[in-house]
Every structure is written in C-alpha cells, then in structure tokens.
Fold this protein.
Amino acid sequence: MTAIFNPTGPAPAPVPVPTRPLPTPTSTPTPAVAGPVGPVLELPGTPAAALVPVTHAGRPVGAFVVAGGRVRYRRLADPDRLVAAAAGAFAVAALVATVGVVATARRRPPAIRTVTMGPGGWVSLRGAPLPPLRPDRRPWWARALRARRLVVDR
C-alpha cells in the first residue's frame, strides 16, 4: 500500500458514490463525434492485441498498439512529407551540380601547365609559350644565305 502525503493540509473528502443505479439506455446509442482517436480494433490471435488509430485533420498519423499489458505508439510515415523531403534533396543536389558545372566552365586555363624541378635545380616549365624572338637586324641577303656573323673566340 502506498501512502501519499499532502504537505498543504489534510486530504479533501472523497467524492460520494451515488446510491441509486444509473438508468440503462433503452435506445440505440448515437455514434460519437469523430475525434482524433478512432475506435479500438481487436486483433485476432494470441496474445490478444488491440489497435487504436490516431488521426489529425482527417488523416491517419499513427496508432496505439495495446498488447501484452504494454501500450506503444507507432507513427505512420506521411507520404506528403516524404515527397517534400525527396524534392528538397533533389533540388539541393541539382543546385550543387549546376554550381559545379558553371564554376568549371568559367575557370580560365592556366598560362603554363606544370612547373617542375629539372636536373641540377633547373626549373622546367612545360606547356609555356616560347619567348618572343629577337629582331633580326641582318640584311636580307644574309638572311637568305643563312649567314652568321664571324666572331673571333678569345
């Protein structure tokens, strides 16, 4: 037996039980107004179980499952929320892919490709354009004959 202590004072007097029996209805009962909880559905089999559907705005949102002395609530997946979540995920993926494609297309190619260290510490620039040639100040006949200046080595 469990005792409940009331720190504010003595417990109120119990509610009196009516002495006369309640009248039994003779007519058929009218169905209750549809509320958020539906009728209890008895499930066949052992152990005995029952389902109590729960609705919101006329749509099922879950059910209370009563079985084995336990009451559990099982919610239903809302198809509208699933479709909305899938559409949102698709929109985000499409946006990320579009931004990636646009960023790749707008990127300028590098002026030179690869910069590496050559043998002996030389810098190797692969794909770099050649430097402009020095102007040739020789006369036309020297260019035609491919003549070179005669320079004395010291």
